[in-house]
Amino acid sequence: MKPSLTVGSTHRFTYRVPENKTVPHLFPEARDFQVMPHVFATGYMVGLMEWACIDMIRPHLEDGEGTLGTLIDVDHTAATPPGLTINVDVECTEVKGKLLRFNVKAHDGVDVIGKGRHERYAVMWDKFTARVSEKAAKAGVAA
């Protein structure tokens, strides 16, 4: 990590919700999801919050470095229909070596739809990929 990411840094990420990010699309094989309303799925909101943090971090990474989500603690308090645009506001709350912590809040133009905290850890992709390959080999599956 470059020393340029600091506590108090903020970032805004914007995303327009398409139909294919609604609950029935989350796990198409799960019948229970298929009968639920066509609103932005919590699972996709979590991913969107991670994406917003990744987008903020990207300019502060060294070549070959990336980050992994290690904790997400958020609520999802309002439904968002497709077509609305979500703004995710991110604030860096801690930089402790390779450990990065953030507050996240998502708003769909009408309501705050979710907020909480997220933690990421910086890794070198080549080392991480090697460890995953070793684990897959031990389990007898392809990585």
From TrEMBL:
Residues 34-124 form the Fluoroacetyl-CoA-specific thioesterase-like domain. Pfam families: FlK (PF22636). The active site is at T42, E50, H76. InterPro entries: FlK, FlK-like_dom, HotDog_dom_sf. Substrate binds at G69, R120. This is Fluoroacetyl-CoA-specific thioesterase-like domain-containing protein. It comes from Afipia felis (Cat scratch disease bacillus).
